[in-house]
Amino acid sequence: MALTLKQLRYFVVLSEELHFGRAADRLHISQPPLSTSLRQLEGVLGVQLLERNSKCVALTPAGKLFQRQARLLLGQLDDAQDMLRRTAESDYEVLRIGSTPAMIYRGLPPLLSEFKDLYPGIGIQLFEQYSLDQVESLCRGRIDIGFINSIPLPAEVDSLPIGVDEFVCCLPANHPLAQRDVIELTDIDREPLVMLNSALAPHFHQHFHNIFRAKNFELNVKHEASHWQTVVALTSYGLGISLVPQSLELSGMNNVRFVPLAGVDTRYTSCCIWRRDSTSLGRDFLLACIRSRLERKQFS
């Protein structure tokens, strides 16, 4: 005999009320069908879910575990039904997505591929912007959702952390330090640096200024570029070394090596952001995909 949705719903209500009479009233049924449903459910599962006698009803340890799982299953089913209903009621929509350039190496392409498979009727426009520009675009209604590096956000913007990356030292492959397993700040305090333009990512510049000054060093920035890939390319031609997100190792750039920095915390959190006071069907569907991939540990 298979488990049914009716059994799940009956059990969840009964597990919340812990009283057959009140549970039956909530379900608008009499008590005998409720008791029968519980016996059938316990028979299917092969465990006792409730301790019951003439004085009280209580969840067994198995019942407490199954209550959580049943609520999760019913919640997912309700969400799926709501999404299908909203999709059927909606016209074609274009979802405007902002993304930092490094996100192309951090799980965004497979996310969008899954999203398109699930919602082929929703178009995508992707805008490459750095974090501050995305926040402005979001507040001005130019994008519906963004993927940024964690920075202070206005009150009207909501966020969801999606992962942690860290900065590493990028060196020309023939650099004397390129074969190290780790690099200390003392090794690079006089090295010429290629950095992302400070106006595009002031929070990163400030972070590294603070790290270097804590060691009584100063950043020796010789060249700046507007894109991370350009920073790595200039590094590969020996114009200096650079500090870049570790995910750029996946860029496939030749003639460079990426080496961790020792003794300093260079981690940063990536988030997706959206305006809490706006509505977008496509955005809500994408957020559901993101949360699902996070639960499955498939967002990296």
Note down, in words, how this protein is organized.
Pfam families: HTH_1, LysR_substrate. This protein has 300 residues and is an alpha/beta fold. It has 3 domains: 5-89, Winged helix-like DNA-binding domain superfamily/Winged helix DNA-binding domain (Arc Repressor Mutant, subunit A); 93-163 and 269-295, D-Maltodextrin-Binding Protein, domain 2 (3-Layer(aba) Sandwich), CATH 3.40.190; 167-267, 3-Layer(aba) Sandwich (D-Maltodextrin-Binding Protein, domain 2). The chain has 10 helices and 11 strands. Strands 3, 4, 5, 6, 7, 8, 9, 10 and 11 form a 9-stranded mixed β-sheet that branches. Strands 1-2 form a two-stranded antiparallel ribbon. α1 packs across α3 (31-45) and α5 (108-118) crosses α10 (281-295). The chain is elongated. It starts with a helix and ends in a 5-residue tail after the last helix. 27% of the residues are buried.
